[in-house]
Write a structure and sequence with these properties.
324 residues; Rossmann fold; five-stranded parallel sheet; two-stranded antiparallel sheet
């Protein structure tokens, strides 16, 4: 029996070593498209690597801090806010749920000391498990203790593999000197301040499936954590739902439920109910393109001015407010 346990322990040790070497080999040499259990991707699709490196280097306060999903980093252009003498930084990341927003908020709020926080909410993500977002953060963010805890809490093999490979890559300098291609192969352009500019056109889609929003308890808890932290620090904030194509929005059966939920936590506006943007203002079935951002940001600036959150010093407006 003793020999059996010794053999078992030895086998487990060898298997562990082989598994670790396999993860390293897969991450280093196997194309991303065929390693589904190791979705580590430096840079990703939303310039997270560049954004979080820029955030790390910033040594000044900002007027407006934006948090949220890709709707955030594709929806709020620092160049437009600069026209009003407002410094904006966008901490959005792909598929970011409230759980990951809470992590980023806790990490950066003291550093940025914003005069106003814009929480961009996409109700779909309140029922997400957050795995995609955590993998993006582990691949491209700063690997700190809290991010490790956030990753372990997911208890997901893809997250574990990504976390292990990222730690190994850092230890051996695999990513040293990495620079994301800008613009990307798809035409996306990273703009300093965390924004991603896109000028593609949504071709439109005749039919969207009917859907409804539901909110997971852990996502609600995380959202309430963010609100509580801002209230403790006396930081003004607004909650915004940025536009999606009208045909898609119309197929959500409980938009009023989502609006009522967010309204409980402070000043909230659902831009879908106000702007009614045409399909020409969208990149795809979920995100604004540059022309849509111009129109949406004009609305946001006016809203901030109207509510007196920041003083406006208007300059000549350089960005078109409609699709040309």
């Amino acid at each position: 029996m003793k020999k059996f346990f010794i053999s078992l322990i030895a086998f487990a040790g060898v298997a562990c070593i082989i598994c670790c070497l396999g993860i390293i080999a897969f991450g280093r040499f196997v194309p991303f498209s065929v390693r589904s259990n190791l979705p580590y991707v430096l840079g990703g699709v939303g310039y997270s690597y560049t954004r979080f490196n820029e955030a790390k280097e910033i040594d000044r306060n900002v007027d407006v801090l934006v948090v949220g999903s890709s709707h955030a980093y594709r929806g709020y252009d620092p160049r437009i806010f600069e026209q009003y003498d407002w410094k904006l930084f966008n901490l959005g990341s792909s598929a970011q749920t409230p759980v990951q927003t809470a992590y980023l908020f806790d990490k950066y709020i003291a550093k940025f000391r914003p005069k106003l926080v814009v929480i961009d909410v996409y109700p779909v993500l309140f029922k997400s498990d957050g795995i995609e977002s955590v993998i993006d953060l582990v691949s491209n963010g700063e690997l700190d203790e809290e991010l490790v805890r956030l990753s372990v809490a997911q208890n997901n093999i893809s997250v574990y593999n990504t976390l292990f490979y990222r730690a190994f890559a850092d230890a051996f300098g695999f990513n040293k000197g990495f620079v994301e291609k800008n613009p990307s192969s798809t035409g996306d352009l990273y703009v300093s301040g965390g924004y991603v500019e896109s000028k593609g056109r949504f071709k439109g889609k005749k039919e969207f499936k009917a859907t409804s929003y539901s909110f997971l308890p852990n996502q609600v808890d995380a959202f309430e954590h963010i609100i509580a932290k801002m209230r403790q620090r006396n930081i003004p904030y607004i909650i915004l739902q940025s536009p999606i194509p009208q045909a898609k929005y119309a197929r959500v059966t409980n938009n009023a439920y989502a609006d009522a939920f967010f309204s409980k936590y402070g000043f909230y506006r659902n831009a879908n109910e106000v702007l009614k943007l045409p399909d020409s203002c969208f990149l795809d079935e979920s995100h604004l393109n540059q022309w849509g951002v111009n129109r949406y940001n004009e609305y946001v600036v006016n809203l901030i001015e109207e509510k007196g959150y920041l003083n406006v010093k208007k300059r000549e407006y350089r960005f078109a407010s409609k699709y040309e």
